[in-house]
Amino acid sequence: xxxxxxxxxxxxxxxxxxxxxxxxxxxxxxxxxxxxxxxxxxxxxxxxxxxxxxxxxxxxxxxxxxxxxxxxxxxxxxxxxxxxxxxxxxxxxxxxxxxxxxxxxxxxxxxxxxxxxxxxxxxxxxxxxxxxxxxxxxxxx
Length: 141
Fold this sequence. Notes:
- 48% of the residues lie in helices and 27% in strands.
- It is α+β, with helices and mostly antiparallel strands and 141 residues long.
- It has a four-stranded antiparallel beta sheet.
- Helix 1 runs antiparallel to helix 2 and helix 2 crosses helix 3.
- The radius of gyration is 28 Å and the shape is elongated.
């Protein structure tokens, strides 16, 4: 699935609008979320750092994944700093976010394999007792 974030800076209104658009069918997009922020609030959050900016625009209604949020924050920074540019489009596909986590997958697989081996060791029957007495009692019942 492809997803786009459209950032619009309106200097007259003093706002920055974020529009989230998602692909619903091949080459068909619909608006998923639309929110405007005061440019003053954006610059105040930006003064505290990129992480503060991400925390500022994320909410219960709009919570992009970390990968997307960081790229979007960089886009907002460049848009706010550029006095001539008023719009920016950022596009993602599901593969972008998967590619950013490729290194973490082998570690998880190794950990799961190790845990599986440890569980198998617990399930091994190492009981050295004589099972014949149990079999004899079962026959007599």
